[in-house]
Write a structure and sequence with these properties.
The structure is a homodimer.
Chain A lengths: L6 H10 L4 H15 L6 H7 L14 H13 L11 H18 L3 H8 L4 H17 L3 H23 L4 H17 L1 H5 L1 H6 L2 H18 L3
Helix pairs in contact in A: 2-4, 4-6, 4-7, 5-8, 5-12, 7-8, 8-12
Chain A binds a DNA duplex through loops.
Chain lengths: ~220, ~220
Amino acid sequence: MSASLPYDEVMVATAREPLTRDRVIEAAVVFADEHGVDDLSMRKLGAELGVEAMSLYNHVENKDAMLDGMIDFVFSTIPIPDGDLDWRDHLRRLGRGTMTNFGSHPWVVHVCMTRGLLGPGALRFMDHVLGVLADAGFDDESAHHAWQMLASHTMGYAFQASAGVTEKDHAEFEMMIPRLAREVPNVARLAPFLIGCSWEDEYMFGLEIILDGLKARLK
Amino acid sequence: MSASLPYDEVMVATAREPLTRDRVIEAAVVFADEHGVDDLSMRKLGAELGVEAMSLYNHVENKDAMLDGMIDFVFSTIPIPDGDLDWRDHLRRLGRGTMTNFGSHPWVVHVCMTRGLLGPGALRFMDHVLGVLADAGFDDESAHHAWQMLASHTMGYAFQASAGVTEKDHAEFEMMIPRLAREVPNVARLAPFLIGCSWEDEYMFGLEIILDGLKARLK
DNA sequence: ACCTGAACACCGTTCAAGT
DNA sequence: ACCTGAACACCGTTCAAGT
């Protein structure tokens, strides 16, 4: 975009590009994607942006506000299905999109769990889902029930999917199995499923049960 | 129990009662119940026990291990229904018990979300649920599906219930409603339900849908 | 075997000072 | 208007030293 500028002009331009709230939050998202949210500190993020930590406070109120901004950033990028879909199909696609989106930002569920879901991005997303439910014929109370179920299901599975069971955890768990077999035989017997399961498949299986139950209570 | 000892002997006994892993963890549970888990630090917990922070490391490996112990403590106190119950009834009681138990320790879901669920207490609880499902006729794969759904539902609602929406939050949310009405009308319309809902009722409503769905897929 | 004091390497955040 | 440096009040944890 600035390819026609002389080389040193480009350098200066990128280096001095003034910080903005959006740039800070995007950089924080990238940092959390790469290093995990536990490693995200104001000092380190400042270093990443070539600035002292304290400069960030000119653009975000504090770290919590920055985390809220990161959540909103992710929510606002969840793809909204278009076209005239049956409400159940709409919610299936929305659910799958949410899961894959959260999958690219493994920290987001965890941060939501500690920060809540009241930012503008999350509210807009919620509003969209409630709109789909209202169009499907749910009254306000039922739509609320449905939202809570769908939200809980989605956050729950996204959380487990992003809990990041590493190879090391697998090995550790498998080493435990002999002892587990004596003390918690049912857990030991199901170990293959616990270790090998596809969270997206699990999620869609459960979503179907929920959609069935909601439909049965609709008419 | 030491009521027959002379008064000052009792004082000395309680003051000098040697620290143990169990005493440390119980004190941490009490501290988190009273002050919230965010305020729980090794230094403050030490002070509570009349000891320097560093002494605690003689009884717990580190803070994370202590948190794991706290989770296990809570899980091991969830009441297990007795008697020969229908599997759905059994799971209903288990679910309700879990919700109220988690309600007395509002920090526990949050800590589980960051520490996972692989301690002995949690494993024993999981084993019990899997046993109920196996007795009901679920094969291993279906039992795994069912467990994931029940766990996700329970953790999700317990989390929301314990997210602790304060009076201040309510007031703040109500003040936002006029602006919300323009930007997220569906959310604004459902505000009364969002503010006033009973998490236990919501939970049981959703549990019924899940149990229905699981039953339909059982035969 | 258990407890302590001092220290290390971090945090988020404030604030006066610079430009 | 934005950035910096030094400081404050905390963390979890290590380690040598005490008893």
